[in-house]
Amino acid sequence: MLKRLSKYIKKINIKRKTTIKDIANVLNISPAAVSKALHDDSRISEKTKKAVKQVAKNLNYHPNHLASALRKGKSNLVGIIAPRTNSHFFSSVVQSMEEVLNKKGYNIIMTHSNESYKKECDNIDTLLYTQVDGIIASMANETIDLNYYNKIKTKGIPLILFDRGENDLNVDYIGIDDYKSSGIIVQHLVEQGCKRIAHIGGYKHTRIFNNRIRGYMDALKTYHLPLEPELLLEGSLTIKDGRAKMQQLLELKNRPDAIYVASDYAALGALQVLKENNIRVPQDIALVGFGNEPFTSMVTPSITSINQHSEEIGKLAAQTFLEHMKAPVIKQSLNKKILEAELIVRDSSRIKN
Amino acid sequence: MLKRLSKYIKKINIKRKTTIKDIANVLNISPAAVSKALHDDSRISEKTKKAVKQVAKNLNYHPNHLASALRKGKSNLVGIIAPRTNSHFFSSVVQSMEEVLNKKGYNIIMTHSNESYKKECDNIDTLLYTQVDGIIASMANETIDLNYYNKIKTKGIPLILFDRGENDLNVDYIGIDDYKSSGIIVQHLVEQGCKRIAHIGGYKHTRIFNNRIRGYMDALKTYHLPLEPELLLEGSLTIKDGRAKMQQLLELKNRPDAIYVASDYAALGALQVLKENNIRVPQDIALVGFGNEPFTSMVTPSITSINQHSEEIGKLAAQTFLEHMKAPVIKQSLNKKILEAELIVRDSSRIKN
DNA sequence: TAGTGATGCTTAATCGTTTAAGCAAAACAT
DNA sequence: ATGTTTTGCTTAAACGATTAAGCATCACTA
After folding, report:
1. Considering only residues 321 to 340 of chain A, which have any Cβ-Cβ distance to chain B shorter than 8 Å?
2. Residue range B314-330, pLDDT digits in tens
3. Residue B12 falls within a domain, yes or no?
4. What b/e sequence results for A99-120 when a residue is b if at least 16 CB atoms lie within 10 Å of its CB, and e otherwise?
5. DSSP secondary structure of A4-24
């Protein structure tokens, strides 16, 4: 009874999708011929190809991606791991990756770690489970243990890192020149007449933040400015952290006259505190952020920041992946592409003479 | 020659992943038994199950998702289409969907239409190609033609809309009560003493914006306020559009004393123009936005806005999808879930008495 | 006119997993 | 002791596409 019912239900529900077999039946040729015709195989006559394509259209045929992926051992999916999606930088990077990859027939599976190492590991498992052909990732701030990323490499699929990468991991990397960016910022502040430049930075164990710190310190030396420990702070660079670090700096006997913050979010927090304390920006203290998030131009005063060329980073990362797909054999030379960043000067550091 | 080389290369490269067949060989049982053991089939002895799972672990076995999806006709993937990813609302909705769906073994494929109808169609094709089990979508502003969405329905997979949905399309929908939200806003402004309330709204053909407009108009009637055509403007609700519409309102002989903007982004643009014209907010003109984007609390003055319960929307949409998966037979009753929104009062409309 | 090559298909195996159907052997009932 | 059920597996056929190998047929060459 129940069995018969379930069979009946099946019969109702199953609008069988058309397969190459259906097309083959219509034209009285083999499924193999259909498959080849659809892929423009040279061993199929033009006449047959046309007929096949016409019938395919008529029957509303759509290839079953799962079947071909299984057979070919290739899913045409690319996994992406980003720390956050709500940051303009990351969503812009991803958008430009998508454009490049879609053109080449790849689709994207997006995941975000939300800056958590555990979530990052979950994401990697998910992506490997889904049989992606490769992974493009930017690491969470707290990620130090790289075992999980090695898991990707042992699977034999390409891994490309962007922005937040580790040099220990022997993989391709795309990012901007953080060291140099710090130099540009310090130079700009010096030109505005600043003499005591503080830095609210990220944690040293993340390479990009370490590079920004090194760049800051070396630039201070270049301009013979004081490099005082109390002016160099490390933190998580959230808005909240920016507020806390700014409070800390304001409590100093000898206050800085400029602050370079390694993230726009923390810079915003710092700006809030400055305004709450009626400190004029930039006249009393100049402020520079990092990342060129859209809100930097929305707040008052608008915040000077570093443009990270997100579109370019996304494009290059996607292209690097595509190169891997072309040459499946292990390539010796690694791609480490470092772009030059650009300073966008706004009101928060434009000191009128 | 070339052939032998290619075979050689294959031999080098192929680290064959372990399959159930490998496990079967080790234990001298059939692959079918292994499959059942891994799925805790009742017809397999506990002893065998344990052995299978142990060997699976030892051989680092990971099920091939493509194969099982093909066989079962189910990919365990859910497609998501959002107009934008850089808005806090959408990324928050998606994040909460992901949480619910991951728990039930589903993975997400994210796409964004970037408010373009063409891109939206592409996304639908992509998702159908990837054999997703269902689609959860929010429509682009410019989407009017619904043929592409019908394509999803004819495929026989569930479609759930959120936030931006059309009632013509006979599908499940999750959103907030836009009509009522307008009422709450107008009431709040009246309580602050405002007498001429303008509305910078979205295009009427998008249902949610139409509802906000209707709510605005009906609320004005309720409070016996003037409903003047020059105070009701339609637009794309970008920052730029907000600026333009604000300029337009300032040129009126009889200026409004409050502005309700149907999007935080446009509200921000309006705020910029107000500040540029040295108009005090809220004393001269009060301002209310919509969406509770994080920047509303960051700018000066902070902007009063409507919280759309993004987490709840995401959760409900995901749960609705899961219900479809449980009961594959056509359900009669549609789920239309309308949540109540919440007004977050901030400085831009807090008029000191 | 036999031999060679190109052309245009077909056959059948394969990717890894699931599942309906079947079949021994053990367990239990009568 | 015989029949029935349950247990615990195996067999084999799918899912839909791809592809190596094979086989006619025809054209052309020497």
Report:
1. 328-329
2. 999 999 999 998 875 55
3. no
4. ebbbeeebbbbbbbbbbbbebb
5. HHHHHHHHHH--PPP-HHHHH
Residue A61 CA to residue A249 CA, distance in Å, equals: 66
Q: Indicate yes or no: strand D within 7 A of the C-beta of B29.
A: yes
In a domain, A67, yes or no: no
Residue B69 belongs to a domain:
no
d(CA B281, CA B271): 8
Q: And the tokens for A17? A: 């999708």
Residue A62: which nucleotide is closest by CA–C1'? D16
When pLDDT is cut at 50, 70 and 90, the band that residue A8 belongs to is very low
CB contact under 8 A, B109 and A112: no
Structural domain range at position B294:
178-308+343-349
Considering only A273-277, B1-5, B101-105, B157-161, which range has the smallest mean pLDDT? B1-5
Q: How many domains does chain A have?
A: 3
Q: What is the pLDDT of residues B100-135, one digit of tens each?
A: 998 888 988 888 888 889 889 988 988 888 889 999
Distance CA B108, CA A145 (A): 26
Task: Determine, for residues B62 and A129 on separate chains, whether the beta-carbon distance falls below 8 Å.
Answer: yes
The total of other beta-carbon atoms located within 10 Å of residue A154's CB is: 9
Is the domain of A254 the same as that of A140?
no
In this complex, the residue with its CA at the shortest distance from the C1' of nucleotide D10 is: B30
Q: What percent of chain B has a predicted confidence (pLDDT) above 90?
A: 66
Is 80 exceeded by the pLDDT of residue A68? yes
On whether residue B99 sits in a domain, the answer given is yes
- pLDDT score recorded for residue B56: 96
Domain with residue A224: its CATH number is 3.40.50.2300
Query: What span, in angstroms and rounded, lies between the C-alpha atoms of A134 and A139?
Result: 16
